[in-house]
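Extended Data, panel c. Modelled sequence:
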Amino acid sequence: MQLLASELLPQPESTEAIFQRVYSAVARTGEAPPVRLHVRPYVATIGRLRLAQGVLELRLSEAMAAAPATVREALAWILVSRLFRSAPPAHWVRHYRQYMNRKDVRRVHQAVRAARSRKHISGPQGVVYDLAEIFRSLRDRYFGPLLPEPQLGWSRRPSRTLLGHFDHVHNAIVLSSWLDRPEVPRFVVEYVMYHEMLHMKHPVEHRRHRRSIHPPAFREEEKRFERLAEARSWLKTAR
C-alpha cells in the first residue's frame, strides 16, 4: 500500500487540542476537560473561555480560529491563565501582541469592525453643550481648517471614567454625557474634546508588541491647551 506524502507529514494540532494541552499545563494535571469550539463572526479578537458542566466552552472569531498555531497557543495561554486568575507567560503575551500589531492583521480587523459593528451616534447637540460648535472653535484655535470634522455625539451612559474616545473605524468622537451638565465648565468639555481631536491627528503607533496610544508628539501638543492644568485639576476633584 502506497502512502500519500500528506499522510507522512505531521498533522497540525487542532485548536481544541492546543487548549487542552495548555489547560493541563496551567492546572498542573495530566487531564483536561473536553473543549467545545464555537466559531462566530465576532468583532472582538480575544475570544471567550469558560468551564461549564465539565466542558471548556471556547468562543473565537473567524479570524482568530484561522490564525497560525503559535498565535492560537498564545491565546490559549492568555485565556486559560485568565480562567485560573493567574498571569500568563510574558513571552506568549508578547507573541500575541506582535501578531495583532501586524499591519495586515490590523487591516483585516478594522475592515471586519467597519462591516459588522454598529455605533450609536447621538448627534452633537446636548442639553447644555453643542459638540459641533466646540469642535469648530477648537479647530480654529489649535488645528487649522484641514482637520476634517468627524461624527460627534454624546454617550448613552454618563461615565465618569471614560470621558471620551475617538473611534477611527467609524470616524467618530463620542464624549461622556456626564460632561453635558451646567456645573461642568466649558473649558473642561473643551479639554476632553481637544484630547480626542489629538487622537485624530496622532494615530496609535504600533511597534512590534507595543502600542503607543499617546506618542511623544501627542503629549507635546497636548501641552498647548491653554487651561490644561486647570481642566485636569477640576476633573480630578470632580471625579
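The first helix runs from residue 5 to 8. This feature is highlighted in the accompanying rendering.
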